[in-house]
Write a structure and sequence with these properties.
Blueprint lengths: L25 H27 L16 H6 L1
Keywords: Membrane, Transmembrane, Transmembrane helix
Protein name: Preprotein translocase subunit SecG
């Protein structure tokens, strides 16, 4: 078995993907990336604020009586 390496011809003036529009999306992509980072920052900040309000446990306290006996006798 023999492999033959052939040089690609460059007759069609192909610059390997670096035509006249090469690199023009870079500034737009950078601005979009910065906007996403700012949005994520504010989302994390908001989520932390909401998570601080969440109680440690949603279980009902078992050792606290619903109504003391002294208050029941007053009525």
């Amino acid at each position: 078995m023999a492999f033959v390496a052939v040089q690609p011809s460059n007759t069609n003036n192909d610059k390997g993907g670096q035509g006249e529009d090469f690199g023009k999306s870079s500034p737009v992509g950078l601005v979009l990336l910065i906007v996403f980072f700012i949005a994520v920052f504010f989302l994390v900040k908001s989520m932390n604020k909401h998570l601080k309000r969440v109680p440690a446990s949603f279980d009902e306290p078992a050792d606290v009586p619903a109504e003391p006996e002294a208050e029941k006798k007053k009525d």
